[in-house]
Amino acid sequence: MAEYIPQTVTLDGRELAAIKARLQGNETAAPLRASLDLLVAEANGWLTKGPWSVTDKAKAGPSGNIHDYVSQAPYWWPNPASTTGDGKPYVERDGQKNPEVLTYTDRQYVEKVFRAAYVLTLAWYYTDDARYAAHAALVLRTWFVTPATAMRPNLNHAQLIPGINDGRSIGIIDFSQAYASVLDAAVLLASYSAEGKEAWTAEDDAGFREWNKGFLSWLVDGKFGQEEHAQRSNHGSFAAMLVASIAAYVGDSTQVAKEVAHAVHDHLPATITADGKQPAELVRTRSWHYSTFNLLALTRLAMVADRAAERLSEQGKQGERVWPSLYAAVEYILPAATGGATQWQHSDLQFEQYAAADLVRAAAASGHAASQEAISKLEMPPDGDTWPVRPAPEQLDPVKAPGQKPGAPKPM
């Protein structure tokens, strides 16, 4: 197929094209080849799994519509003092995931949708193996496009708390952690269709774009979306990143500019101190995890802003950058990112040094000198490093379910 520069949302399309050229030119650099091998191995595993649908759950949620997404708040547990016999109303135990949440399949399945679609699409992009594109398209089509199986574009019943509510604004984070990667996958799949193949058709692409327009409207205009966007914590960071990413995907440059300006002039000054601390994350039981988690959202937002600025530059215009507002926060985590837990002056129930690896590399790629100097001292994830073939931050240190081993496959 002819070489092209993907107009991706977060990933740098020029960088993707350069990586592919190196690999197809028999590039033998060990890190790059090893990363592709890891990616392809994971893609091979996804080939035999799915597709999944929001309609696969045993029963509908509070709305009564099986097409509505439903999930349960992970850190809320039955109340031992409850007088109703069913543990309601539930009580919070921060940082401890209640295994009961797994009884709601929507979140489990949508995490598989996000991960499978992204990994399969990247595997196709680099190898030209049509099986990967075909299965990625099937996964996305089933969850988002086919009327009989598609999710409605809302999160009205995400992270509900038994006995307290039927859904919460913070449930938006069920999507915002990983959904932006799906948008990049859709851009790449559309290029496959443009080559005359039938994996991801024009009808699929149009249907997916309409779904995202509806979801964007729900996020921007609805009560839950506005509440989440106003949070001065990782929730507000992920909400801004999600809105900016979807807006970029559907071509709403005005909304992208609004999100970038909101981040630089409103959200970041309220969430990151002059010396780089993130107060809302440092009070959590896993302060390192949540500090890096918040930066995951913000660094991805910075990359979306970069892509938008590049397109504006082509029109002779100038776009605003997010990166300069993030460097103090990156510098605050650098000592622990390179030196380990003894260099982190806050409590964390399960410190994982490698959680910072992607963030520092993203900052280095943006031109941050201190991050560039730190790269050789970073600890890499124990289950393998795929950064060289998917150079955008991922959540490397998830809050693990009881019994899950460090380094176990991550849902994103």
Give a description of the structure.
The chain has helices at 13-24, 30-46, 105-127, 130-145, 173-176, 179-194, 202-221, 223-229, 234-250, 253-271, 279-282, 287-314, 327-339, 357-365, 369-374, and strands at 70-72, 76-77, 91-92, 157-160. With 412 residues, it is mainly alpha-helical. The strands form 2 sheets. It has a two-stranded parallel sheet. A two-stranded antiparallel sheet has the order 2-3. It is globular. Residues 401-412 have low confidence and may be disordered. It comes from Sporothrix epigloea. InterPro entries: Alginate_lyase_dom, Chondroitin_lyas.
Question: What are the defining features of this structure?
Answer:
mainly alpha; 412 residues; lyase; Chondroitin_lyas; Glycosyltransferase; disordered C terminus; 15 helices; single chain
Helix-strand layout with pairing:
Elements lengths: L12 H12 L5 H17 L23 E3 L3 E2 L13 E2 L12 H23 L2 H16 L11 E4 L12 H4 L2 H16 L7 H20 L1 H7 L4 H17 L2 H19 L7 H4 L4 H28 L12 H13 L17 H9 L3 H6 L38
Parallel strand pairs: 1-4
Antiparallel strand pairs: 2-3
What is the number of beta strands? 4
Helix content: 40-55%
Based on Cα principal axes, name the global outline. Answer: globular
Q: From N to C, what is the helix and strand string?
A: HHEEEHHEHHHHHHHHHHH
CATH fold topology of the largest domain:
Glycosyltransferase
Described by strand count, sense and barrel closure, the largest sheet is: 2 strands, parallel
| Uncertain stretches of 5 or more adjacent residues | 401-412
> Based on the structure given, which CATH architecture of the largest domain is correct?
Alpha/alpha barrel
Strand content: under 5%
| Individual helix count | 15
Fourth-level CATH superfamily of the largest domain: Chondroitin AC/alginate lyase
State the separation between the terminal residues, measured CA to CA. Answer: 30 Å
Query: For the CA atoms, what is the radius of gyration?
Result: 21 Å
Structural class: mainly alpha
Q: What value does the average pLDDT take?
A: 93
The quaternary state of the protein chains shown equals single chain
Strands in their spatial order, largest beta sheet: 1-4
Tally the structural domains: 2
Indicate the CATH class of the largest domain: Mainly Alpha
